[in-house]
Amino acid sequence: MSSVPSDPHAAVAPSMSSGPTMSGKACVYYDGGCPLCRAEIATYQRAEGGQSLQWLDADGCAPAELGTGLDRRAALARLHVRRADGTLVQGAAAFVEIWSALPRWRWLARIARLPGVLPLLDLGYTGFLRVRPLWRRRPGATDARALRLLRELRTDHAGETGAVMIYRGILAVSRDPSVRAFAQHHLETEQRHLAQVEQVVPPRWRSRLLPIWRVSGWLTGAMPACFGPRAVFATIEAVETFVDRHYAVQLVLIDALVQQPPVQDAAGGRSPHPLPDLPSLRTLLEQCRQDEVAHRDDAAARRDGRDGWALAAWKQVVGRGSEAAVALCRYI
Length: 332
Hints:
Helices cover 58% and strands 5% of the residues. It is mainly alpha-helical. It folds into two domains: 20-134, no CATH class; 144-329, Ferritin (Up-down Bundle). The protein is elongated, with a radius of gyration of 24 Å. It starts with 25 loop residues before the first strand and ends with a helix. The model is unreliable at 1-18 and 263-273 (pLDDT under 50).
């Protein structure tokens, strides 16, 4: 925890850096390593007006993204907001900036601006900061961003395992020649992906839920195959749409990690959980992403695009199910 100015409400003099404020929006710097902080910020992001602010996880961003006058330790110590003019505010004053931008929270900002209220809010916030370490991730041998990437790679291994089983499920049920040719072609690609990811993710980092992924993947392929080609192609389109976004997020994370120094442990040595070569990993994941996009586009081109209510509902189930499965797999 770094030291902060003696006046917790003081604003740093404006400094127009190459940081996020160049977009003309105020930028919120929050601690994504604190589950409580992350949950509160997510509430603000989803609220009406949330898109009028920029949101930057100070726990996982590159140092340059913090802009002038703010280092990572200070950003993790207290909530900060950089106004559109470059002025930096922190603590309770930062919360007031957020509330002011959200229509349904402006009443709270008005109360906070009443005489004597803001110092009380900041006193309460300072009290919360004293107990926050009970919830925040403890600093360990593995950097938070590196650990996040390792968890993402675990989901990639589970996802490619499930993808192989999806196409095997299709082949087990469908007797349509065009569907079988489609499934066989893309199965070969997914098997190659799985073999490549297995070279990156050591066995001890793989999900303990793999048996469930295999069964659910097979069913995700087999069930629509019972209803014909259109259901199969719609399912693959829904799955690959999610996978495209999933890989894209990981590429952004790798780009941030490339700019960081090597992870050190408490004794100054290398992390016991070293990451693979990041440029090579990025190339691999980008190629996987492009292949998945090709699968999605191939599936979309093979159907007429008209979804009845049942098929539309099934695609929602597939997309939301994929998101939930990946979220669970990150930690198990």
